[in-house]
Amino acid sequence: MDPVNSSVVEWKCQKAIVAFFRCLDERNYPGLLARMHPDGVWLRQGKQLKGEQQIMQAMNARPETMRIHHILTNLLVNVGSESERASLFAYLLVFRHDDGEKHIGPAPLKGPSAIHACNAELRPAAGDWRIFRLENSPTFVAEA
């Protein structure tokens, strides 16, 4: 693959995964679904979510009082030679607070609740690069 095209694909894949987690944090579930490939699978909290219905069911079960931010770092994208798939790796830091109350303004912060190894496969769909498979594996969890 031409290095210029490879760089464009890498950027589009990074943009897709960052936008996915931003939508998750903002509870923008239609935006989150728009980043998923139509045949995509999200391995989330030990469950395999496939399709809009399963993803929305899991999203609607999230507590309304939870505030969460996912911070991606050390992103690395490898583009396949045929330009039909790309793999992405990143570290995912999770900051979470839920004391059962909705907070206006900053929520208390004790540090990250977890660090995950984020692995994704992305494929082209509908004129853009979409998440075909996403799996986050915890590498660190906060002590209770």
List keywords for this structure.
6-stranded mixed beta sheet; Nuclear Transport Factor 2, Chain: A; alpha+beta; 44% strand; 6 strands; 144 residues
Short description:
By secondary structure, this protein is α+β, with helices and mostly antiparallel strands. It has one domain: Nuclear Transport Factor 2, Chain: A. It is built from three helices and six strands; from the N terminus they run H-H-E-E-H-E-E-E-E.
Describe this structure in words.
The chain is of the alpha+beta class. The chain is built from three helices and six strands. The chain has a six-stranded mixed sheet. Strand 5 (114-125) and strand 6 (128-141) form a beta hairpin. The chain is globular. The model has no long low-confidence stretch (mean pLDDT 94).
- What proportion of the residues form beta strands (DSSP E)? 35-45%
Distance between the termini: 48 Å
Class inferred from helices and paired strands: alpha+beta
Count of separate DSSP helical elements: 3
The CATH C-level name is Alpha Beta
For this structure, the CATH topology is Nuclear Transport Factor 2, Chain: A
Query: What integer value in Å does the Rg equal?
Result: 16 Å
Work out the helicity level.
Answer: 25-40%
> How does the overall form come out from the CA principal axes?
globular
Query: Which regions contain 5 or more consecutive residues with pLDDT less than 50?
Result: none
Order of helices and strands: HHEEHEEEE
What's the number of extended β-strand segments?
6
Average pLDDT = 94
Largest sheet: 6 strands, mixed
The order of strands across the largest sheet is 2-1-6-5-4-3
The tally of structural domains comes to 1
**Judging by the overall fold, what is the CATH architecture?**
Roll
